[in-house]
Design brief:
Blueprint (H helix, E strand, L loop, with lengths): L13 H28 L6 H12 L9 E7 L2 E4 L9 E8 L2 E10 L13 H24 L6 E2 L2 E2 L8 H10 L1 H17 L3 H12 L21 H5 L2 H9 L2 H25 L5 H16 L6 H15 L4 H7 L5 H10 E2 L10 H15 L10 E2 L3 E4 L3 H8 L13 H16 L5 H14 L4 E7 L15 E4 L5 H18 L3 H9 L9 E7 L3 E3 L2 E3 L2 E6 L16 E6 L3 H4 L8 E3 L12 H6 L4 E6 L4 E6 H8 L6 H4 E5 L2 E4 L11 E4 L2 H6 L2 H16 L3 E7 L4 E8 L38 E5 L1 H5 L4 H17 L5 E6 L16 H4 L4 E5 L15 H8 L3 E5 L10 H6 L4 H4 L10 E5 H4 L6
Parallel strand pairs: 7-9, 8-24, 25-26, 26-27, 27-28
Antiparallel strand pairs: 1-2, 1-4, 3-4, 5-6, 9-12, 10-11, 10-12, 13-14, 14-18, 15-16, 15-23, 16-17, 18-19, 20-21, 20-22, 23-24, 25-29
């Protein structure tokens, strides 16, 4: 018969091995389930209901038959199921006890019948697992109640009984659930008792730290101390609490526990936000977690909250102590959360927004907070904005291997001036890091095709005494066309602003103020341009600047604290730049009826005649005569009736939009409708007052108005000179001993020991035919500025020095060309077109004020005014001797040694 094949023998003990493996797998499932429960309960981004539902969904995979397992957690009358299902008879449950009382249950169901096991279809291990989950939920809920207390031991329905040992239950729960946290709380409790001056607490602290081993060494020792490890048994016991109970009421102990538990919940983001070296990626996450903590009802002790606000201001905005002192009272977590959404930075960035952005943000918060007391301030807006953090400049430099450019600031300013055009082109032809390009692309999608202004916001900018007014670039962009074109224009503008950090004026400005060694970084502020579209053009109704202090007063009735507003129609560039042949409207907020020009002919003559705007078709900033602009755009001009008056029959009257013909009528920008028919002046006066009160310093602001809404664009401390008493003027001087006299716009001041005069002859300057010769006069003045003794020479010459536009109307100089002079005297002759500008408020004038360079307009052809032109014309001219390369300008530019020309005397 055939052989029967043998059946292989089962390995010995295989059943036991399988059973062990099965048990291990089940145990692994249980541990994974418990781990997931802990993970869910620790998530601060979920509220209580969301966490309980998430725990219910986690339970099923921990049971033997997860495919048919569902769970529900019940607290009070609220059910939190894993998903909607119909209960079945196959259920196991466990009570959820919170501080000794049953508050709910957790139930686990099989939706289909399963084989019989230890407890129906359930395993005895699953019974232990559900009990563990219920216990963990009970402890967690108790901790939530405890941590959410208000410092007096109460929270909503949670009422803490006033008994001596009210702390015992929470402390025991804490010790069972989290020994590390219990150690921390116990240690803080001992510290608190030590601060109360309890000797017993000092002894307990010493025992906990040193284990009671030996006496501490007294006096200075020259050998290292022996390391002693802390003894945790002291802290893990209830001795710290029992000691506290002898000296504090139970509710006080519980309140301290609640405070420290809140701080522990916040410790994660507090450590990140208090660390100045935390990269922005971590900071952003910490700010969001802080917001979730507050939204969940969390609170911080006042000193902790105070310190956190300071850290956030310092981290995002500035390290200036005066700024922080004010800003910490106005900025909350929600402000920094919103700011994060508008910031462009890399995860590793540690930069800030810079001075201009920080100043605007704080000013807006101050104004908004004052709106209840000053209703007119409720209408103040700020433009939509985005911010590139300051250290993006360093990323740009590193990305393009441009580190050598950082040495520019240590070079002679003349060399910096020569090399600056090359630096600009080098930056414009460099590439931006890809991450920054992606962020800017998204920014353009968000803003859409609206005109933008790209503004500097360096770390040093807009501080008291270092405003950097006009030193760095601000560039307008039409922002029209294909996205690639708009992106290219935006990158080009940012590169130019980055390059302006290394320009001659900023370098000289920093050198004068001892700031060359400061590691300057450049933030970028990108804003929507305020205004309306009028045909192919885009512009605001008007814009301007305003100042708390009026440093240039044309009437004795005007006080310094009355302030000043400079207004121009259209873009505000003509309000902050010195314009060679145009005027702003000047208003005194504290004395609105005192106008600089009262007579009819003066109102017309000294009104703005040109307007700046953005041409959306040409995609550039343009200037046109106002008459020509209105002839093209008509009464569609935003805020038309607020800005313009009709000149008719020798009278000015309000221009009614429907009754004028801009092509035929003579329209003058007087702003009469704005000042007489709106609360604008009162609004600006209130804003200046509120900002000065809160910032503890006079301020200057920039603003724009679209015809309906007022927009705040900038706020910074106002640069100002000390208020001097009138200097005594000697009587009965011989005419030859007087260089000039003045009786208009003379401010108090004392400019002694002047040894040299740099004089530009107005008639000879006007006769220069070549543009190159006009520029050469400015270069010669710049060279003399470096050679003559600092603050011992004055500049005297025609027109508006440093103005934008026709350089025939004033000597072509910038700040670094005249920064060593003691005084600038601008001369207006009737036979020429040279008219000094009351230019207080322009960037040029701010430079003079900050540098303590006195300014005086001189009208030598007016009655009772002396001007010793003979002395200026006949005194020996040192120009050819000092600057041989400019000898051909001797008939235009004169350098006079005053002692040599006057027998040893000085001015």
């Amino acid at each position: 018969m055939p052989e029967t094949p043998e059946t292989p023998e089962q390995p010995a003990g295989s059943e036991q091995v399988d059973a062990i493996l099965l048990a291990l797998r089940e145990r692994a499932k249980e541990l994974e389930c418990l781990y997931r429960v802990e993970e869910i309960l620790a998530r601060p981004d979920l509220d209580v209901s969301e966490r309980l539902r998430a725990v219910a969904r986690t339970v099923g995979p921990g049971w033997q038959y997860p495919e048919t397992c569902e769970a529900v957690i019940t607290l009070g009358h609220e059910r939190h199921p894993s998903r909607p299902f119909t209960p079945t008879p196959w259920v196991m449950s466990a009570p959820i006890r919170v501080r000794g009382r049953e508050e709910g249950r957790i139930e686990v169901y099989y939706l289909e019948e399963r084989p019989e096991a230890d407890r129906g279809p359930f395993l005895k291990e699953e019974e232990r697992l559900i009990a563990s989950i219920a216990d963990r939920l009970g402890i967690w809920l108790a901790m939530q109640e405890l941590a959410a207390g208000d410092g007096n031991g109460t929270r909503g329905e949670l009422v803490v009984e006033e008994r001596d040992e009210v702390w015992r239950g929470p402390a025991e729960l804490l010790r069972l659930s989290d020994q590390t946290l219990y150690l921390s709380i116990a240690r803080k409790l001992i510290n608190h008792l030590c601060w109360m001056g309890l000797d017993e607490a000092q002894d307990m602290l010493r025992e906990a730290e040193l284990g009671g081993a030996g006496e501490e060494a007294v006096g200075e020792q020259n050998v290292p101390e022996r390391r002693r490890r802390p003894v945790h048994e002291v802290l893990l016991s209830d001795r710290p609490f029992l000691l506290a109970a002898k000296h504090l009421r139970g509710a006080e102990i519980l309140a301290l526990m609640q405070k420290w538990l809140q701080e522990d919940k916040a410790s994660g983001f507090l450590k990140t936000l208090n660390n100045p070296y935390s990269p922005f990626g971590e900071v952003a996450d910490a700010v969001r977690r802080y917001g979730q903590f507050l939204a969940a009802g969390g609170s911080l002790a006042e000193p902790t909250r105070h310190g956190l606000q300071v850290s956030l201001v310092r981290r995002f905005l500035t390290e200036q102590l005066d700024y922080i002192k004010c800003a910490k009272e106005y900025f909350g977590q929600e402000d920094f959360q919103a700011l994060l959404d508008a910031m462009i930075m890399t995860d590793s960035s540690r930069g800030r927004l810079g001075g201009k952005s920080a100043g605007l943000l704080l000013a807006h918060k101050i104004v908004a907070a004052a709106a209840d007391a000053e209703p007119s301030l409720a209408q103040v807006r700020v433009p939509k904005a985005a911010y590139i953090v300051s250290d993006a400049l360093l990323d740009f430099i590193a990305h393009n291997d441009l580190a050598d450019v950082l040495e520019q600031k240590y070079k002679d300013v003349a060399q910096v001036r020569r090399e600056y055009p090359n630096v600009v082109q080098l930056f414009k032809n460099s590439h931006f890091p890809p991450a920054l390009v992606r962020s800017l692309t998204a920014l353009l999608d968000d803003f859409g095709e609206v005109p933008l202004i790209v503004r500097s916001s360096s770390l040093l900018e807009d501080r008291l005494g270092t405003s950097f007014a006009g030193k760095y670039k601000s560039l307008f962009l039409a922002n029209q066309g294909e996205r690639a074109e708009r992106l290219d224009a935006l990158l080009d503008a940012i590169a130019e602003i980055y390059a302006s950090v290394f320009g001659p004026d900023p370098v000289e400005y920093r050198r004068e103020r001892g700031l060359l060694d400061f590691n300057e970084e450049m933030g970028i502020l990108i804003e929507e341009v305020v205004g309306r579209r009028v045909g192919r053009y885009f512009l605001p109704a008007f814009a301007g600047v305003a100042f708390s202090n009026n440093e240039f007063r044309w009437s004795p009735r005007i006080r310094r604290e009355d302030g000043l507003i400079r207004l121009v129609p259209g873009l505000g560039t003509r309000a902050v730049d010195r314009i060679g042949d145009d005027y702003p409207i000047l208003v005194v907020p504290g004395q609105p009826n005192l106008r600089a020009n009262v007579a009819m002919d003066e109102k017309v003559r000294y009104s703005p005649r040109e307007i700046d705007f953005i041409d959306l078709e040409r995609r550039t900033l343009r200037t046109l005569p106002i008459k020509e602009f209105l002839a093209e755009c008509g009464t569609e001009f935003p805020g038309f009736e607020k800005v313009f008056s009709l000149l008719e029959g020798g009278d000015l009257r309000r221009a009614a939009r429907l009754l004028v013909d801009p092509e035929q009528d003579d329209l003058v920008a007087t702003f009469a409708g704005l000042m007489d028919g709106t609360p604008f002046v009162r609004q600006v006066a209130a804003m200046l007052r509120v900002l000065q009160e809160q910032l503890k310093t006079p301020v200057d602001i920039e603003f724009a108005h679209d015809g309906e809404q007022f927009y705040l664009l900038q706020c910074r401390p106002q640069s100002y000179a000390d208020e001097d008493a009138p200097a005594p003027i000697p009587k009965e001087l011989a005419p030859d001993d007087v260089l000039f006299t003045a009786n208009r716009y003379v401010s108090n001041g004392w400019v002694p020991d002047i040894t040299h005069i740099v004089y530009v002859d107005a008639r000879q300057y006007a006769d220069l035919d070549r543009h190159e010769d006009l520029l050469a006069v400015g270069r010669a003045v710049s060279a003399l500025n470096k050679l003559l003794p600092k603050r011992q020479f004055v500049l005297i010459g025609p027109g508006r020095w440093g103005s934008r536009g026709d350089i025939r109307l004033g000597v072509n100089v910038s700040y670094s060309d005249i920064n060593n002079s003691a005084m600038l005297i601008e001369v207006a002759r009737r036979q020429g077109s040279y008219v000094p500008d009351l230019s207080f408020g322009t960037h040029f004038f701010q430079d003079l004020v900050e540098s303590r360079i006195r300014y005086l307009p001189l009208y030598p052809d007016e009655r009772d005014v002396l001007f010793n032109e003979r002395f200026l014309a006949r005194a020996p001219n040192l120009l050819a001797e000092m600057l041989p390369e400019f000898a051909e300008l001797q008939h235009v530019l004169r350098v006079i040694d005053v002692p040599a020309a006057s027998g040893g005397r000085v001015l």
